[in-house]
Amino acid sequence: MEKKLLGDSDLSVTPICVGCWQFNDGEMSGDRTWNGQPYAMSKSIVDTALELGINFFDTAEAYLNSEGVVGRLFEGRRQGMVLASKFGYGANKKTGYTALDIEQALTASLERLRTDYLDLYQVHWPTVIDENLEEVVKELERQKSLGRIRYYGVSNFGKTDLEKFIAAGGKPITNQVLYNLLARGCEYEMLPYSVEKGISILAYSPLQQGLLSGKYLKSEDVPEGRRRNRLFSSSSTSLSRHGEEGCETELFTAIGELKTICDERNISMPSVSLSWLLKQKGLSSVIVGAASPEQITANTKFTDISAEMDSTLKDITEPIKVALGTNCDLWAEKSRHG
What we know:
By secondary structure, the chain is α/β, with parallel strands linked by helices. The protein has helices at residues 39-51, 66-74, 99-113, 133-145, 159-167, 190-197, 248-265, 269-279, 293-298, 307-324, and strands at residues 4-5, 12-13, 16-19, 56-58, 82-87, 118-123, 149-155, 174-178, 200-204, 283-288. It starts with a strand and ends in a 14-residue tail after the last helix.
């Protein structure tokens, strides 16, 4: 797989990054998004990813058991891997991180990950650091100078968040954001601004938690934990916090049209969806989760996206983009983006 550099760094990563949220050591997450994944399955997924040449793996202190599992999986084979994690919403600290909090969070992450450095350390949400921007930036730069992190980035930052972070002296090389054919809100402001500033985009949920797999053609087919976002009515599940009506008609109309196009061309929806994302300006890597080694293998099969196909896919999903608007936060009642 052809690799890309992140921002102005020397970190060269594969177009597929393995998202390790599901590496939960067999324990289901409280929001019911993912089932429990046994350690042996996580190991099979990582083994397959490495065989395929994937070198990029992303986790976070907030992901249930994930850093501990990743640490066990990479012990003795860390070299050559680009390992990313995030601070924020940890077990002992949720928001308002100070320099000391960051140091303690990083120390704990390194211990769980069984490594003495991270290639990329990310602020999980702008709400994590509140107004402590200059203090946070100084601490991240200090950790760089100590060699405990090679570079730092942000996650879920909107245009205004990025402007404030940069004004405080921040030099993020990446912004990890929700981006896929069904969630295109970042295209309004954040994506163009990131491209302008040379900040690489890492797209998480590139298949919108399985909606772009082609398996779900109506709302009741979708697992409850994956219906708690603004694509669905807040009445769809008690897990929902957003309080909106959703856009399920637009959603399943688009999914049906996408499936028809893929079936006519005998190509899979995941292949088209991931290939489309990687064609977008500013995208460096897409972060994919996996329930099996076979899913990782399938997600490395890209297809050519012509200018005509790019336009068609955007037209199909435009009604969803309009319905969701500029708010890139699909889950909270009040957007956590700025």
